[in-house]
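Quick illustration for those who missed Monday's session on complexes.
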Amino acid sequence: MTPTAHALNGLLTRCAKAKVLVIGDLMLDEFVWGKVSRISPEAPVPVVWVQSESVMPGGAANVANNIRSLGGQVSVIGLIGEDRWGSALLSDLAARRIDTAGIVKAQRPTTVKTRVIAHHQQVVRVDREQRERLPAGVIERLIASAEARIKEADAVVIEDYGKGVVTRQLLESVIPLARTHQKVITVDPKEEHFDLYHRVTALTPNRAEAGGAVGRELESDADVQRAAREMLQRLECGAVLITLGEDGMWLFEQGGRDVRIPTVAQEVFDVAGAGDTVIAVFTLALAGGASLEQAARLANQAAGIVVGKLGVAVVTPQELRARLTNKPSSIRKRLVRTR
Ligand SMILES: Nc1ncnc2c1ncn2[C@@H]1O[C@H](COP(=O)(O)OP(=O)(O)OP(=O)(O)O)[C@@H](O)[C@H]1O
Ligand SMILES: [Mg+2]
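Prediction with adenosine-5'-triphosphate bound:
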């Protein structure tokens, strides 16, 4: 093992003791698995003969699941509706030993993304969601739930998918409180709230989100560098970790240091949820005492594994350790099903 790999390996052990609070837009990923053998007589569409169905935590719940998978202790704050999908999400998270006591139930549907998959290929995706502004009472319950749990956490993740949980009020209450208690605070941002992510530990936008933050498309490396420096200055945050899809990621720290990390993916089957894995592992590593660069390198290793799996997936400590010790990859082409 190289010295860097050795350090990252030790870090993985410490991660298991870290406590992370994930605040954001919870989703349920629903999968309908089937076979297609004919075209419908009613319209030019395939007929899917359903073989099985499964669910996985999505959005902020996927971030929580990624943290849990690496052994971290995790509590989630977010919204579900009073419907069967909300109940399915709650029981799925509880079965994974993720603390769900901070989840708020509201009079709106649970966000659900249903993928119909036949012969390993997605046939259609059906989304159920409502993004309107939440009633004041619900926003207040979310804030109270977050405030009650910040002290006992080592780190706070804000996972903003723009579905309504992350509001100005919530950020103006949660960020200063977490700062007062010297918690690690990481944000997976959405454009409209950029100026509210003030003085957090780090933001993890992708290329498009970083472009949205500065109001222009980021094409060249110079564009990415300029945008990152602008964000560091404007938001006074500790770091900006810009994820660049197949080009890996680029860490920019307050003070001028930057590290470009190429992807380590060996096989790419499905990039969905790779950003969730990045913020989960990055935060868990910071909570376990890693430097920004070590945390980013570990997150990049994890993302390189997760894109090799079909479906929104997670990484296990065994898979990460195998990567760090350069053992032959244990990644297989496989479908990711519920338990
Ligand atoms: N096509 C790819 N090839 C290799 N690695 C990839 C690819 N796509 C993503 N990755 C890895 O996953 C990380 C995060 O990916 P990306 O920049 O696409 O995040 P994202 O857009 O936030 O994803 P998400 O869909 O989860 O929101 C990258 O930094 C890289 O390490
Ligand atoms: Mg993302």
